[in-house]
Predict the structure.
Amino acid sequence: MPRIFAASSFHPRRMTLTWTTKPFPDLTLAELYALLQLRSEVFVVEQTCAFQDLDGQDQAATHLLGHTETGELAAYSRLFGAGISYPEASIGRVVVSPQFRRYGLGRELLRESIAAVAALFGEQPIQIGAQLYLKDFYESFGFQQVGEGYLEDGIPHIHMVRS
């Protein structure tokens, strides 16, 4: 269902995103290409981090795609049931396209991701591996740090759980 987002103070426009969840076999080639391109643009190029994005888990994930009215992929995450990435259900590869930032889409993406996990797998704890600089952002959604920080591909990370 399309949702209208009030623009932030940085952009006087409004944006409508359509959210879709799809298991890997249901992704079209165009959708798969777009999500891999977005992940590469942000996680590899923007963050200057050479890492193995194609980690063999996409096939087990449900993919959450947020498209603009013109069909551009603006926001994305992948969702897992318990026991795949962590003992708990999990959300990963949370990303908003650079050209669509400052509309509050990161917050909407995380709200949609949490709701989709509940709809797909039932209400349960959710674990994430968060980049440390986003700790406050995730805490605003009820996630709490568990354990010590760690380096993943040279970037400081922490495990966080939302009960």
